[in-house]
Amino acid sequence: IGAGFTGLWAAYYLRKADPSLNILLIEKEFAGFGASGRNGGWLTGGFVWSHRRYAASHGEAAVRAMVAAMNGTVAEVLAVAAAEGIDADILPTDELMVATNPAQLSRLRAEVAQRRHWGEADRVREIGQAEARARVTIPGGLGGMLVSGVARVQPAKLVQGLAQAVERAGARIVEDTAVLSYAPGVVETTRGRVRAGVILRATEGF
Fold this sequence. Notes:
With 206 residues, the chain is of the alpha+beta class. It contains seven helices and nine strands. The strands form three sheets. Strands 2, 3, 4 and 5 form a four-stranded antiparallel beta sheet that branches. A hairpin with a 2-residue loop joins strand 8 and strand 9. Helix 1 packs parallel to helix 7. The chain is elongated. The protein starts with a helix and ends in an 11-residue tail after the last strand.
């Protein structure tokens, strides 16, 4: 249910894992209508939630594994786009946060230390005032946090290209079809009833 990035990526990899699967994506509007097609246009691969909170219930090793997996998502998206011929204006680049007062610099350093502690030492580092100014001139800039391994992307092009790749892989997308309700094994839509052994809800704000 939902043909945004969550539903499309799930369908893409499920078909790769088992080409015999019968996969149907049901979309109320059109593929990528919601946040997937109109987001900020950056691929960062960062684990932005509280690392310590997750570690308290799942252990530090599990959190580090998740951080590593998240870090790998940018390269994976770029690889799939290249393999599937998706032209999404992708540009590998860096992420830069700049501190303009001592309090911001202190928080920035704490963020750098935390992210390096949890497994991002190879992509996150602090840069000084001169290097920050060489990248961008911001009045009062004192330094920055540099994150490598990110990319800029045109989200609408990426989601539409991914939808085409999903259909080429053998999954089906039905658009302009609203889901009215769902229960184990059945989805009721404005165009009829769908029966399925597994139902994946891939919806968000929209």
